[in-house]
Amino acid sequence: MRVYADENVWLPVVEGLRRRGWDVTTVYDEGTVRDSDREHLERATRNGWLVLTFDDDFLSLVAADENAERAGIVYVGQYGKEVGELVRRVDAALRRNRDRDLVGEIVYA
After folding, report:
1. CATH number of 2-108
2. 81 phi, psi to nearest 5 deg
3. C-alpha distances out from residue 7 to 26, 27, 99, 100, Å
4. pTM of the predicted model, to two decimals?
């Protein structure tokens, strides 16, 4: 599963996930940093990627379009957490769901 990290995900978290073997691309890697949340979600959906975000705006976006087919989302609130904890939480969420089709789902890490 390829994970698409939006601009709110700290790069050290991305690097930590990559060190744990996850295939993570970022908005910086893809040259899409100025795109809207909707455009990020649409890109991930087209490519079959899972969106990783710290941005709760994605949750509102999904709630407004609850019947639309879309990429799965892994959401984690970063406030009060250190990089290591965030990496562990996301890694654990990805491992728990490794064998599941997460299309259209929100996973809270």
Report:
1. 3.40.50
2. -115, 145
3. 7, 6, 26, 25
4. 0.91
Instruction: Please write the tens of the pLDDT for every residue from 44-88.
Output: 999 999 999 998 888 887 766 665 678 889 999 888 889 999 999
Place of tokens 């089709």: 101
All residues at 6 or more sequence positions from 23 whose CB lies less than 8 Å from its CB, including other chains: 1, 2, 3
Q: What tokens appear for 27 in the block?
A: 């908005």
From residue 66, how far is each of 5, 59, 86 by CA, in Å? 21, 10, 27
Distance in angstroms (rounded) separating the CA atoms of residues 84 and 28: 21
Q: Of 58, 54, 65, nearest to 5 (Cα)?
A: 54
Cβ density class 1-19: b for 16+ within 10 Å, e for less: eebbbbbebeeebbebbee
Residue type, 101: D
What ranges do the domains of the chain cover?
A: 2-108
